[in-house]
Protein 1
Amino acid sequence: MLRYICNRLLQLIPILFAISLIVFIIIQLPPGDFLTTYVEQLRLTGTEVADSTIANLKAQYGLDQPLYAQYLLWMKNMILHGDLGTSIQWNMPVSEVIGDRLMLTIIISLISLIVVWAIAIPIGIYSATHQYSFGDYFFSFIGFIGLAVPGFLIALILVYIVFTQTGVSITGLFSPEYQGAPWSWDKVWNMLPRLAIPVVIIGMSGTAGLIRITRGMLLDELSKQYVITARAKGVAEQKLLFKYPVRMAINPLISTIGWTLPALISGEAIVSIVLNLPTTGPVLLKALMVQDMYLAGSFLLILSVLTVCGTLISDILLAALDPRIRFGGVNR
Amino acid sequence: MSEEHEVLLQIKQLKTHFHLDEGILKAVDGIDLTIKKKRTLGIVGESGCGKSVTSQAILRLVPEFAKLEGELLLHRTKGNQKGEQVDLAQLPLRSKALREIRGGEIAMIFQEPMKAFSPIHTIGNQLMESILLHQSDNRKEARHIALGTLRKVGMSNPEQRLNEYPHQLSGGMRQRAMIAMAVSSNPSLLIADEPTTALDVTVQAQVLDLLNELKETVGTSIVFITHDLGVIAEMSDEVAVMYLGKVVEYTDVDTLFHGAQHPYTEALLGSIPSISRSGARLDTIEGTVPFPMNLPSGCGFYSRCKKAVDGVCNVADIPLVEVSEGHYVRCLLAGQ
């Protein structure tokens, strides 16, 4: 097992290197760079920009150097100083732009992830063991609505209903008086009830999808021979259900962690924009639109690293849960 | 069939019908069988004749949408109802009594041990689960019994096997583990559903010997389900030949091989390769088994039978008739 984990960790190094390279190439691909956008904007507002100013700016951000030098500089600062570069659009270090938002995003996303699993798995199990019952149809119906209706639409409807009924605007994570205030228990307390709405909305489609997956997987497992074997041994139904088929049906859910982690950071973009949440999604969108290359690049890199880490975590968990994967790997 | 053996399980008019959208599938359609103590009943037939469903119906393992009728009178040998006769078909599906009988008094050996074991639990875990349910609450003692049972079925390195997973064992070892799991609680009846089909011939012989040995030492009765007449000859005391969910011939093993009267049994026997008949073409049974749904009236074997007589065989259902003592045949032409 330990060997398996070490082996997987070593494999990470070339993968991460390749990812950083690809990310860098991708952010260089669109024609022009942030400066061209910036200069264009200035010219539109009527300000003349001297060629020397542009050259100066280029030198300041290292844009006059060849691509490989820019890449090496970026990597060097990142690995040695943890410096992700400077956001040209915000004129701040990338880590400062992202920092607070990243934490809030992770809090919201983790809570919604837990809520999703806590709701979806029991319902999925119920649906599978009571296939074609009223409850099964009911949850399937709700599930399809959750899958089919986009989250931002539900967010808009909710905001509208709450506003017309109570006059309270539920957008944002904090009441106006706490908006700019430093972190305190009062501020956290103020945030918690407001978290409920984004958590429900962000979690909705995930819950619906997960119910369908759990139900399908469990239905497959329930008819397997080993379930009949256990029944023939005289194991009680309830105990049997959780010891054998549910354990097996959970495996594919664990393998979804790989893409759940990055979706946590970027998945709620549109909902966040609608609800005016201070999370990372809107910033990522903006950074891509104005070609703020270090900010966008850092985002892409974080997302990719999260994907790789998520996959690693799910692989290790799977190996711990399923001996066939453990022994199918490097131990033999 | 001698009378000195006590009856363990009496199956009366057992029916298992699957109600599907397309109609009623009569997988098992009214069979009567008697399983005696310390005897082996062989059930033989082609794929789809209902022999596996019969075995599963005895333990009420058929899917819940299947309709089960008839009586399954078990003479209980354990628990507080010891000595009494219970009708398995009447027990509620989730009752404690049924769970005590499953695994404790009637145990099953399945065809493919690879599929019948859970791949993510160790052999020891699955073996001890059965022992903990029926024999002992003490994990240490259960482990001890598990080791003893593995030794009894001839498993090499039993201590090591307990911690291994099913995929780490060879096919033969896996089937031995399966048998160990079934006999660990000293059941009074062992149902073996094609236990050797997935094994190669040498391992097959070992497993058959093992079952016969256990029958002697533990004193269990066996219901042995197979499509292989050679295995039947080696294992059984009595034999029931099934066709389309019905028993077509039911007798002791000697009579079956030397005085079979149903055309289907004769045809089956004729299709066994024999050393004394070398050079001759092997007989086959023409056609395939009809799908057991919306069958025409009359004999089920009518469409494939060489002796079939139009207007006689395809008119009404054929009864199972006792042609001589203990020899039952479902054919109008039997004894002629």
Protein 2
Amino acid sequence: MGEFAYVAPATVADTVAVLEEHASAGKRAQVLAGGTDLLVQLRGSDNEPRTIVDIKQLDETNRLDIGADEIFIGAAIASAVLYENEELKALLPGLLESSDLIGSTQIQGRCTIGGNLCNSSPAADTTPAIIVDSGVCVIATNSGTRELPAEDFCTGVGTNVLAPGEFLLGLKFPRPGAGTSDAYLRFIPRTEMDIAVVGVAVNVTLDDTGTCTAARVAIGAVAPTPLMVPAAADALIGTQVDDDALAAAGVRCTEASSPISDKRGTAEYRRKVVAVLCRRAGAIARDRAMGVS
Amino acid sequence: MSKVHVQTTINGEAVEYLCEPQQSFLDVLREDLLKQGTKEGCATGDCGACSVLLDGRLVCACLMLGVEAEGRTLTTIEGIASDDGLHPIQQKFLEHAALQCGICTPGFIVATKALLDKNPNPDETTIRYWLAGNLCRCTGYDKIVRAVQAAAEELAQEA
């Protein structure tokens, strides 16, 4: 084994300083939250020496705040902790469903939605849900923080916009009002413990007559990054989110996808399934927004 | 790289050790503390053989660094039985022959402990989903599920 080091800074400023020092010295540093991806990497092909920077000691990354207008979820909060929060589950059911789908009970005890986003897998379960819930990344920088819509965060397979010296503090979401809800569905060939073949998240806002006034749709595992599909959202807005509108949105998802064929599914299959999941997730989000489920 | 000094609590006892930054908590347990009841299966968080409780929450010891145990409270399979004998979960695993080779058993017992602490009366579906991260290649799982149900009943009677 080469030169590994571990630091767990007590402040955000110290964390940024450690990351910047390493970047300017040409040394590798990597942020540790739940570790469910990082430790697998350390034991696998990518075992180059580095400094592991644990962000779990920071107040801000452990902060869970459900405010009147805004919800903040710190980047170090384990998925199981989120799922036990009934208020959060009622507000953002689709997001919590997506995070509850990651791994086993054991993984749930450690994994975080911030880590899922920063690992930047095309198949990350929570990223499509974060995107449709209008999640905003709160990123620590050497001059404070910067914010970025979640749909602009991932740049490719395993890559994202974080510059050397930056790290994700957490995600903030607008608190959904009455008539707004979300859903996430993924397809896997088993019932548990697998990686998405396709994932789709939908968020809709309905008015008193059941007409959709706002919508967001995002797809996962069918492109190099999770993708927001504005054309699919447009197919829902102004409708009753009925079968025809959902079918049209599904077609838009198929058109937006550019999947690969791999051991989990062929590209052709994924293009088909993404439309099916869009219809089903859209119907669930609609029913939730109407308060019927 | 220099070793890190860690102070933690394992099975109710204060423990101190020195570990390498990249050592997993599982490596520390097995190689340095010689607590070898916790098993290594995959070392990638897929099999659950290394299940331990971290501040009461079920985690894989292979996906946690040794240094991350600092200031925390951990329970391993060695902390499940009491001085009076086996824990009812262990007893029911024996009675129901819920093991063959035994490599997965410590992980299943610790995972079952976490489940029953949280939900004393789980239905079969809940049990199966909770234990989905614990792999057993011998039993076919049915005897394990029966043992968990029997342990839940036993603990309910004791309570």
